[in-house]
Amino acid sequence: MAERRTTLASTVPHPHRASNPHERVSKGYSRQDRIALAITAAVGTMYAVYFLAAFMVGWMLVQTAAGNGAFDPFPFIFLLFLGNIVQLLLMPLIMVGQNLQGKHAEARAEEEFQTTQKTFADAETTMRHLDAQDAELIRQTALLRALVERLLPAEDVRRIEAPSGVPFKEASDTAAP
């Protein structure tokens, strides 16, 4: 007796398991990394721009209103000095924060790539399975046709084929080019 199969195609699952790249990358951050990210996130907002613009305008208005008693008269050299200090301190800090954010982007891109690879592998497995099903259906249809033609007279065979209005096609007619 022939062996009884329960499936037409074997499937091998893709090894990738989805994960959260944010959690994976964040676990590796030190306290300094978290501080750099927090400052980068705070300085990189429009609220920071508004605050710095208001501070500079306020500084210039107060110093101009003070007239000869101003400790930083026009052209506001001390204000420029403070601005340079802030820039010198924040520039490397923002670069560190951007590098850390870049690690997140790389981890997300890698996760998306692996997930896409898994999706493609699953689609290919599904297509192989469908091809195996097609081949099995064609084989079974040919067996059934041979049985019907052997057991029934030719006029009954024509009557069985007729209800759909489409004559029975041989397996070679349905094969893909």
Describe this structure as you would to a colleague:
The chain is mainly alpha-helical and 177 residues long. The protein has one domain (22-174). The chain contains six helices and no strands. Helix 2 crosses helix 4 (77-151). The longest helix is centred in the middle third of the chain and has 75 residues, at 77-151. It is rod-shaped. The two termini are 36 Å apart.
What is the total number of structural domains? Answer: 1
Question: Which class do the helix and strand fractions yield?
Answer: mainly alpha
Q: How would you sum up the global shape? A: rod-shaped
Binned strand content: under 5%
Identify the notable features of this structure and list them briefly.
177 residues; mainly alpha; 6 helices; 0% strand; rod-shaped
What can be said about this structure in brief?
The chain has six helices and no strands. It has 177 residues and is mostly helical.
Q: Any chance you could write out the topology, listing elements then pairs?
A:
Blueprint: H1 21-26, H2 31-43, H3 46-65, H4 77-151, H5 154-161, H6 171-174
Helix pairs in contact: 2-4
